[in-house]
Amino acid sequence: MNSNTEKNEAGATSEYQENLNILRQIDFFSGLPLEATKVFAYLCIREKFKSGDFLFQQDEEDEQAYYIISGSARLLHVDDGQEFIIRDCEEGEFLGRLALMSTMSRLFSLRARTDMICLTITREKFTKALEQFPDLMPKLIRVIVENIYSWEKRFVAHRTVDCSDCFKEIGVSLV
Amino acid sequence: MKTEQPPVVKRTLWSWVLTTNPKLQFLLIFIILFTVFSRVVPLEMQKRIVNEAIFLRKIDLLLIYCGVYLVAVIAQGALKFLINYIQTLIAQRALAGMRKDLYHHILTLPLSFFRKTQPGLVVSALTTELPLAGNFVGMAISVPVTNILTLLAFAAYLLWLNPLLALVSLSIYPVVVVLLPILQKRANQQNKRRVDTSRLMAGKIAEAVTGIHEIHGNGAYWIENNKFDFLVDKLMRIRILWTLYSQTIKVLNNFFTNLSPFLIFLLGGYLAMKGQLELGSLVAFLSAQEKLYTPWKELVAMYQVQQDASVQYARTMEYFDHEPDHLIEPSDREPYVFRGDFDVQNLSFLTESGIHLLDEISFSLGQGQNLALVGFSGSGKSTLAQCIGQLYRYTGGHVLLDGKEVEELSKKDITRNVGFVSQNPFIFSGTIQENLLYGCLANTGGGQNGGSDRMPTLDDIIAVLQQTGIFVDVLRFGLNTVLTIDQDQELAARVLRTRESFQASFGEKLAEYVEFFDENRYLYFSSVAENLTFGAANRDEFNPINLPQNTYFLRFLEEAQLTRPLLLLGTRLAEQMVDILVNMPPDKLFFEQSPIAPEELDDFRKIVERSKKAKLGQLEDADRTKLLELALRFTSGIHKTVALPEVLEALILEGRHLFREKISADDPDAFTFFQMTQYIYSQTILNNIFFGKINIFNPFAQEKINQSIVHLLIEEDFLETIIEIGMQFEVGSKGDRLSGGQRQKLSIARALLKKPPVLILDEATSALDNKSQTRIQNLLENRWKGKSTLISVVHRLDIIKNFDKVAVMKAGKICETGTYAELIAKKGLLYELEYGKK
After folding, report:
1. What are phi and psi of B305, to 5 degrees?
2. Which residues are CB-neighbours of B485 under 8 A, at least 6 positions away?
3. How confident is the model at residue B1 (pLDDT cuts 50, 70, 90)?
4. Which end of chain A is less congested by CB atoms within 10 angstroms, N or C?
């Protein structure tokens, strides 16, 4: 028996390996070399939220990104004390790419609708790890740009007549 | 008090000789006179023994002279010892005096001095440059006096024996006296260069240590190595030259002193042949002349020490010869107590290179008002705050505090009235409490009495901790403290009572956040070792870190068939961690979820390499121990890179029961097993209250747990005690065990605790999260409003809306002043800062 098969005896899948598989499906990480993805997968943490918990709140800097492993959450915006529902975020969604790149306070809140499990990574961990792989930055920027571009493209394509006011404000991809 | 002395940097080396223990110096001279006398006596005795005792065959005289000889020799030894002792005493006292005075002086030097001075240089000056000067002070009187007197005594003796020969042999010395200083001058030059280069090197080392993050971050080892190696090589060349010159002096001196017997042979031999000198006299003369060498050599060595010491001493004192910018404390009055009215007129700050960092700034601020300084980076807002806080000396204009010029106030007037919090506050190693009270303690002036009444009470401290929001952190430190058995039985008993109330009132509510210590379940948030022993070790050899070497425990692992699966687990862990982290810098952040510490990673990398080549059974014992240690540390709830196989989990649970049976039979006192009714000394206070460990880390759960705990502690009247324990938390060197936010909160609390009439915050909340920042902002706007005049340098514009005044700075000037609303309405610079250029 050689040492390799010996090790495989212990073979249950670890959380880290599961994380690695998840990250490789997220556009933000999928194009990166395995060496870097491994580090990100290792630095991720699983967090449990109970129905009604906030994942993040408007005007706060939570400085992390979320991947929803299970459960769903509601994206809200509060204006003058009134709560507006934007949409629901479901299993498999990845939110907060921009929060990984720079400081900004949230413009929305995200509240768990069911009990949830999320994979999270903080900006501090992300940026410190990224410092070790400086060549990755251009790739990540390209992904972000593609994200913003396709978002706006979708928005323009799907606009309806009653949205004529908000239509004047668009052009995020032109910033 | 001693009489007025000039500042230490103006003192000459000789002044230390004269002022360090004059009484001892005097005693020394007295002893030396005896010594010189005791040195001549044996010579005379020698002569008398031969001429009188032996020649006249008088036994009694022989005995007497031999006795005197013996006494003289013993006295010589004893006196020599006494002289050395007194010399050392003087030298060390002088050194201690120099060190203290210089250090006290250095601390008062202005910040501008430290801006351009490497810390390593100061260390090097205080530690390595002064000892030689101290030694010199010890020798300065005794050595020359002893040797000159001895020299004179022997010279006189020689002249008495034979004037002509004496004059000839003494003629050598004037030549040496002329040559010596010429060579010494060169040695001195090298010595100066040596001191300077040593300093550069010390500075370089300190710089590299301080900047180690940047070096690791950039992998810039070779750059730093090159810089350092260059200095070391330079120093090496200088030291070689310096030593060469010093040695040349010694060699030359030896050569000349050895010449003098040669002259005596030549002249004395000639005279003896001519029959003008008896052979016996020549021999006697030669042996007496030899005695001249030792004192002469000592004198020359002394001369060299004096030269080296003077060079180093002068170099050191020159460097620190700066005046403090401000008087430390007023001599003729009590420090002022100010109301806090500011009037700034045409304030300018010009750097040495002629750049206007501040340019004609004027504003006024009434008592209790607050002012926000905003502007682009480099606009001079921090400099302005520092000038107002007397940290920098402004070069023009006026800063009037209650009508008094800040520049002319003493430091004490400022520290009594102004709380200054800088952007990167410094935290000293020590406890949180020591850091909190730092400012208050400084104000008491270290006086023996009258200090305590001005120190804040525990209630004051707790109030400030709550206001600044560091309360929760201190509470957590307190709860995370591990009590020791002999420390506080009473405290442990109270924790146990709290555990009962916790179970009664919060047990259910928090049940899902806590993994309780349950005998029949595997604990995912405890290590493998803790899972196996399920108790607190009462003896050192059973402590978790010692288990991998504990033969009893190792035997147990074999019996429970755990050795092999644990080794496999260890190997798997090591492989994974090495694979992921091998190229990562040793940052704490990367190792939080790793069972391997940064400094161990390289060892494990080598072990993994070896384990790939060999079977488990063939690994060396040391490697097996390390792998076992790693497996025993493994905590599956935290270290997620490897899954805990179900089989192993079951085996460990089984092992837990086996171990308990075994050790209860063999060594019942070794462990205290986890029991509801018993305090667990290996666990933190919090884990003891829970009788378990928290199993969730998200901030909402954390918040809920905190609230419950605070609630519980208040009910049990236990909160203050835990806070007091928490304040004993050691913050580490430079506060490295605190987060950036905690350091800032601590430093704000430190300033507030002084209750100063003036508060200057230089981007003091930059590392805080939104919530903490808002909390501090509310505190300043409500509690402190009207009590303290506040000047706040602000980098984030969302907190300035309620300030009385906002001043926008650009290029060293205040461009606009007004309330936030006014300035925004004006659509000027502030508008531009807030919304970007339109």
Report:
1. -60, -45
2. B538, B681
3. very low
4. C
Task: Kindly report the number of other CB atoms within 10 A of residue B266's CB atom.
Answer: 11
pLDDT band at B228 (very low <50, low <70, confident <90, very high): very high
Taking contacts as CB-CB distances below 8 angstroms, the residues of chain B near A105 are: 770
Same domain? B502 vs B383: no
Q: Domain tally for chain B? A: 4
> Averaged over A18-30, what is the pLDDT?
90
C-alpha distance from A100 to closest chain B C-alpha (Å): 16
pLDDT for residue B448 is more than 70:
no
pTM of the model as a whole: 0.71
Residue of B615, B640, B644 lying closest to A16 (CB–CB): B640
For residue B621, the Cα-to-chain-centroid distance in whole angstroms is 39
**Residue range(s) defining the domain that contains residue B715:** 482-517+674-727
Q: Kind and range of the H or E element at B564? A: helix B563-581
Same domain, B451 and B429: yes
- Same domain flag for B351 and B271: no
- Quick check: A45 and B593 CB within 8 A? yes
| Contact criterion met (CB below 8 Å) for A95 and A65 | yes
Domain annotation covers residue A132: yes
Closest partner residue to B612 (CB to CB) among A3, A38, A124 is A3
CA distance readout (Å), B155 to B141, B272, B417, B504:
21, 22, 71, 99
Alpha carbon distances (Å) from B443 to B107, B415, B452, B743, B783: 16, 7, 11, 21, 23
Test A42 with B645 for CB contact under 8 angstroms: no
Among chain A residues, the shortest Cα distance to B649 is held by: A10
Total number of residues shown for chain A: 175
Inside any domain, residue B718: yes
Q: Which two tokens stand for residue A77?
A: 């915006």
Residue type at position B162: N
- For residue range A49-64, list pLDDT tens digits in order: 889 988 998 888 778 9
To the nearest 10°, report the CA torsion of B318, B320, B323, B328: -150
Q: What pLDDT, on a 0 to 100 scale, did the predictor assign at position B239?
A: 93
Q: Is residue B326 part of a domain?
A: no
Q: How far apart are CA A132 and CA B8, in angstroms?
A: 50
Q: Model confidence at B454, in pLDDT bands (50, 70, 90)?
A: low
Best A19, A42, A46, A131 residue to mutate vs chain B (most B CBs within 10 Å) = A42
Token output for B391: 């940290």
B161 and B36 share one domain: yes
Residues in chain A closer than 8 A to B565 (CB atoms): 10
Q: What CATH code is carried by the domain that includes residue A102?
A: 2.60.120.10
**Contacts for A4 with CB less than 8 Å, ≥ 6 apart:** none
Give a yes or no: residue A6 inside a domain: no
- B137 and B22 inside one domain: yes
Both tokens of B674, joined, read 């986890």
Find chain B residues with C-beta within 8 A of A45's C-beta.
Answer: 593, 697
How high is the ipTM of this complex?
0.84
Show the CA angle centred on residue A27, arms to residues A21 and A29, nearest 5°.
60
Place of tokens 């002259």: B263
Same domain flag for B108 and B234: yes
Residue A5 in domain: no
Q: How far is CA B304 from the centre of its chain?
A: 34
Task: Please report the number of interchain residue pairs, chain A to chain B, with beta-carbon separation below 8 angstroms.
Answer: 88
B interface test, pick of A8, A16, A122, A130 with most B CB neighbours within 10 Å = A16
Sign of CA dihedral B710, B712, B715, B721: negative
Question: Nearest chain B Cα to A127, which residue?
Answer: B589
- Asked whether residue A163 is domain-assigned, the answer is no
Q: Which two tokens stand for residue B55?
A: 């020649």
Structure tokens that stand for B287 in this block:
């042996």
Domain count, chain A: 1
